[in-house]
Amino acid sequence: MHVNSKGEIEKAYLLKSSGQPEIDQKVLQAVRRSQLNAQIFKHRQGITIVDQPFMLEQK
């Protein structure tokens, strides 16, 4: 994720695909809906790159 100084996600992308485009899109949608703590980013200039690991389970 690319996060601005307001804690808003400006860009989200996958480092590795699950191999299933539908699942990849669902993960990206979930990341984009994430609520980040803006206080963490407020003193940073520009964009901060943040990794968000995901572990998918089959039910």
TrEMBL record:
Gene Ontology cellular-component terms listed: membrane
Domain TonB C-terminal: 1-59
Gene Ontology terms describing biological process: transmembrane transport
Predominant location: membrane
Highest taxon in the source lineage: Bacteria
Keywords on record: Membrane, Transmembrane, Transmembrane helix
Membrane topology, as annotated: Single-pass membrane protein
Pfam family, one: TonB_C
Signal peptide from the UniProt entry: none
Cross-referenced InterPro entries: TonB/TolA_C, TonB_C
PROSITE patterns: TONB_CTD
Localization of this protein: Membrane
Protein name (Swiss-Prot/TrEMBL): TonB C-terminal domain-containing protein
Highest classification ranks of the organism: Bacteria, Pseudomonadati, Pseudomonadota, Gammaproteobacteria, Moraxellales
